[in-house]
Every structure is written in structure tokens, then in C-alpha cells.
Amino acid sequence: MSSTADVPARVLTVAGSDSGGGAGIQADLKTMLALGVHGMSVLTAVTAQNSLGVRGAWELPVEAVRAQYRSVVDDIGVQAVKTGMLSSAALVETVAELLADTDAPVVVDPVGVSKHGDPLLAAEALDSVRTKLLPVATVATPNLDEVAQLTGVNVRDETGMRQAADEVLGFGPRWVVIKGGHLSGDPVDLVTDGAQEHWLRAPRHDNRHTHGTGCTLASAIACGLALGQDVPTAVRGAKAYVTGAIAAGFPLGAGIGPVDHGWRTRTV
Description:
Blueprint: E1 10-18, H1 24-34, E2 38-50, E3 53-59, H2 62-75, E4 80-83, H3 89-100, E5 106-108, H4 126-133, E6 139-140, H5 144-151, H6 158-169, E7 175-179, E8 188-192, E9 197-201, H7 213-226, H8 231-247
Parallel strand pairs: 1-2, 1-4, 4-5, 5-6, 6-7
Antiparallel strand pairs: 2-3, 7-8, 8-9
Helix pairs in contact: 1-7, 2-3, 3-4, 5-6, 7-8
């Protein structure tokens, strides 16, 4: 019989399902396996999607989300939580309430739109994200489209990323990662708590198969935090993992394929 010392760190993802397997719960759990933690999930919505886009989405009832969360946290426990697609104000507020009662770091990926431009968050839920969800976040990881949704700031350069970080930190997360991958040039991310500032740069890979990058980065950060790393260290390791996954992204279907979550161990 194995001892408790053999139990890996536990990370919980609260997010939607991606039937194509590239993003959402599926990407989160693949990332957690790749990074050596035990992944657990609370499903918030079911989507019908593939490489071309989201064909439909069905939100789960608040009671189902709350029951999944409590069943995992009360029995198994968590060392970190990551949130993704929450879709409605009711779900955002329910999850924020659950997180506030959980003694573990929280990574909030404020998912607003899919890689294909499909809306994944109701417009009326944005205020709940600002006032309920971001205040309980250890780290928030908005991309530039999500920054614009949340703050109205349209980032065009690194100076704009600083302004965006200040605006998002004003909602209450302890740290923010402003993802600058949509800017021209090599991708750069700004990691800051308002006092410390870290600029993380990586080469841009000529590969359009990048479905799931946001989910994967947030999950990888949560893994680092669950393993006891501080936020800058966790983000740096997560970015290295995601950069490799983007480089190894592969085509599926007729549209945008996924990043390769298993790139470090794949032999064929």
C-alpha cells in the first residue's frame, strides 16, 4: 500500500468542456497530468465544438456546479484551483463564493471568447467577474481581448500592458498576467502585483495550431502554485511549458488545431 507521501499535489479546474479536446476541461486535465499533479474537475458547461468553432453551449445548473465543487474539496482537498469558462453571472457568483471559502491559491482565466471568436461569457456576467471573481484570485490571466472587455483599455504596446495591469489589479487579484501574444513581434507577457514587475519573452512560433493556449497557461500556473512555487516562478515555468506546446501544436480537422500538451514526453 502506498503512503500519503506518494500522493501528488491536487489541482481542481472549474471550467467548460471542449468536445474537440483542445481547450477547456480537457486541456486542463492534460496539462495537470503532464506537470505531475492530480487533476480534478468541476464541469460548468458542455460545448459542441471542433477545429472550426463552437457549434453550441449548454450551461450546467448552479446546483450541479456547487455539488461537484463541494464533493471534491470537502473530501479530497485541493492545493490550487483554476477557473475557466463560467458563462453566466449566476455561475460566476456561485464559483466566487465557493472559492472565497477555499484555502488554496486561485488562478482565474477570465474567459470571454473562444479562439474562433465565439462568445463564452454573457455580457451581463462581466460585472460579476470584476466585482466577485477577480477579488478572490491569486492570479488573473487575461489576454488582450479580455482586458478590453473588462477594462475598456485597448492595448497596442508594452506601455499599454502596464496600464492594463494596473486596471485589472484594481479589481482585486493579487497578481495579474497580461498576455501580450496578440501584439506584433515576439510574444511577451507582463507578470506583476503592482510592486514587482516581470516581463517574460519567448520566440514566436510559425504555427497556427494554438487552440487551448489560455486554458493551458492558467492550468500550468495552478500546477506550479500547488507544488509550492511563488507566482513569478510558477508563471515562468508555465510559459516555458506552453511555448513548447505551441511549437508542437498539430493540425486536427479543417480549422485550428490544438497545442500539444504531451510534447515533453511524446516520442513519435
